[in-house]
Each structure stands twice: as structure tokens, then as C-alpha cells.
Amino acid sequence: METFGGEKSRARIAYDWRGGPLARMIRQRLQAARLRPSRQRISLAGLLFVAGDRHVTAEQLHREAQALDMPLSLATVYNTLRQFVASGLIREVAVFGSTVWYDTNTGSHCHYFDEGRQRLEDIPSDLTRDLKIAAPPGYRIVGVDVIVRLRDDETLQ
Amino acid sequence: METFGGEKSRARIAYDWRGGPLARMIRQRLQAARLRPSRQRISLAGLLFVAGDRHVTAEQLHREAQALDMPLSLATVYNTLRQFVASGLIREVAVFGSTVWYDTNTGSHCHYFDEGRQRLEDIPSDLTRDLKIAAPPGYRIVGVDVIVRLRDDETLQ
DNA sequence: TCGCTTTTTAGAATTATTCAAAAAACCCGC
DNA sequence: GCGGGTTTTTTGAATAATTCTAAAAAGCGA
């Protein structure tokens, strides 16, 4: 096991991976979505798509990027997440509270929200398949959000 | 058909109903929830519970109260709605966007959200009955929110 | 009515997010 | 590789929804 070992080398790692094979895949993904592969977009896409399904807020993602010395502003995180949503790379999830959550899994599925730890997670099975929903006349369904709010037994009382 | 006919008489109506039979029922409801029946709480409960199921934001409710010359501040509307939620008189609904919605129907049911007109409505049948949800070990389910987002055909394109 | 507690209020503070304009980065043809 | 037009990013201000704070008002029991 190896630690990162200091500011400089972390910076190099954060910078260097942008030339690697992972970065090439991400560039392709961005290009397919007609988004110019800028440093910042590649960095953020890296964080989002490297490790399976993720659920993050803009603030969280920004902190993560900073911890890895990826130079980008909070505004860019917000902009980029919005663009990624618009391009269908990720999706928004409506949760209680004032914060918007982003989910890298764009398929049809539902969420648990842990109110104590403020964490969002996928529900393994797709519950929405069981729902028989019809749009009222004159309307079209643009999305279905199911969120199951949880409290862990300690927090509960 | 009769109009309200001017500021004064609207003010009297808004004030006077607080002595009537409706107000008595609302007082009882507040008392049952261990909330002191202040003018403001009675006024707001009146707006919320007189006319069947309602879906409102704090801002909307405040405007409504002002239009009826009920004297109360926006902060009170926010406080009161939070207390009503805590007492189980109403419930919150998680919707996209930064605004919290309140629903006077506390039973298990789902919602349509009209994104064009920004309006929330109950879905007649209770879809959640079809959902087979289990809490992960160590957790308890404190609520299930299903919101079906709609666009009307004009707004759509 | 008096006095104690709860509630309300106005306005400041906070939080999450968006906006606007300037600076920087990207990309194309040469 | 280099200028020039376009796209992105950035900083800081602006906004929107909500909460907080301390003081004033209202409610309530003796």
C-alpha cells in the first residue's frame, strides 16, 4: 500500500492521468456528448465515471477535486454538472432539502436517502417497473423519481 | 354572485371567521397537535384545511394570506409550516428545484409535478402500494416519495 | 389583571445556486 | 507551431429560499 506522499506528487498524479488510457475513454465520451474536452470537464468526468455509480452534490465534487489539486472553480462544477445532465451523461435526483444531487447511473432506478448521514444510494432492484403510471391527457411523463427516506436505528431515537 | 367589495370588508371577513364554527374545528385540531391556537396558526390552518387537499409553497401561502388581509409575516409562514409538518398535520414533498412543497394530504400517495406551470398534484391511485420496498438492515423507512414529472404537450417543444 | 411563557416579527444571516463580464483555453487553417 | 475566432472558465456579485436572532406582542393561568 502506498500513500500519495505530499502535495507535489498528488498534483502530478492529478495532472498526469489526463494523458492516460482512462482519459482517452473519457475524451471520447465527452466528444460523443458534443462537449469540448476541456481540462476541467475531463477532470470532473474522471471523478464521476472512474468508480462505478456515484451520487454527489456539486459541493462534494468540488471538495474532491480540490483535494486532488485539480484546479477548477465551484462555478465550473455547477456549470459542468448542468451540462452533463443536459447531455444525458448523469441525472439529477430530487431529494428533500435544498441541495441537488447528481447520479452517474442514468438508467431507471430508485434511491435510498439516509437522512442521518445525508447520503444517497441506488436501490438495487428497479421498483419503478412495478408502477403503472399514466400521464394525464395533454401531458407527457419526463421522469419518475422514487426516493425512500431512511433513518438508521441509532439516529432514530 | 357577490364580490368582496373593498379592503375593509375583506379584512372583516378574514378576521370574523375566526369566531365561527370552522375556526372551532381548527382550534381543536391545533390543540390535538399541542400547538397553541394563535391567530396566525388559525389563519394558516384555515387556508390549508378548508378546501380539501392542497399543495402549496410557503411563498404562495403567504401571498394568499396577504390577499385576505390576514396579518402575518413570511417568517411565520415558514415556522408554522415546519411545525405543522412536525405535528403530522401536513407533509413535505421533495420536488426538483429549490422550493419545498407542502401537502395537506398526509396519507400514502404520489404526485404529479407539472414542470411548465410549476404545480403539484396528487395522483389519484396510491402507486406506492405496488412498490415492494424493504429497508436495508439497520435502517427504518421514514417515508417514500414518488414524483412523476410532467410536461404539457405545448411546453414540450 | 399580572406575570410568565410562547409566538410573532423585522431584518440580518446563511446556503445553494446562477449570472455577467473578463481572462484563459481550445481548435482550426495556414 | 501560430494567430484568430469561438468556447470555457473564473471571480465576484446577484439571487432565491430559507433560517436565525433579538425584541415586541400575544396567549393563558392564577
Structure in words:
In chain A, helix 2 crosses helix 3 and helix 4 (58-67) packs across helix 5. Chain A is globular, with a radius of gyration of 18 Å. By secondary structure, chain A is of the alpha+beta class. Chain A has helices at 7-16, 21-32, 39-49, 58-67, 74-86, 153-156, and strands at 55-56, 91-93, 101-103, 111-114, 119-122, 139-152. The first copy, chain A, folds into 2 domains: 7-89, Arc Repressor Mutant, subunit A; 108-156. The longest helix of chain A has 13 residues, at 74-86. Chain A has a 3-stranded antiparallel sheet with strand order 1-3-2. Chain A has a 3-stranded mixed sheet with strand order 5-4-6. In chain A, strand 4 and strand 5 (119-122) form a beta hairpin. Chain A has 6 helices and 6 strands. Chains A and B meet through strand 6 of A and strand 6 of B. Chain A binds a DNA duplex (30 and 30 nucleotides) through residues 36-41, 57-59, 72-76, 78-79, 82, 98-100.
Percent of residues in helices of chain A comes to 25-40%
Gross geometry of chain A: globular
Average pLDDT of chain A, to the nearest integer? 84
Quaternary: homodimer
- Beta-strand percentage range of chain A: 15-25%
CATH class category label of the largest domain in chain A: Mainly Alpha
Tell me the count of domains of chain A.
Answer: 2
Give the SSE string of chain A.
HHHEHHEEEEEH
User: Strands of the largest sheet of chain A, in order across it?
Assistant: 1-3-2
Biggest interface goes to: A-B, 34 and 34 residues
Number of helical elements of chain A: 6
Write the CATH architecture name of the largest domain in chain A.
Answer: Orthogonal Bundle
Radius of gyration of chain A: 18 Å
Question: How many strands in all of chain A?
Answer: 6
Structural class by secondary-structure content of chain A: alpha+beta
CATH topology-level name of the largest domain in chain A: Arc Repressor Mutant, subunit A
Strand count, sense and closure of the main sheet of chain A?
3 strands, antiparallel
State the low-pLDDT regions of chain A, or none.
Answer: 1-15
Q: What is the fourth-level CATH superfamily of the largest domain in chain A? A: Winged helix-like DNA-binding domain superfamily/Winged helix DNA-binding domain
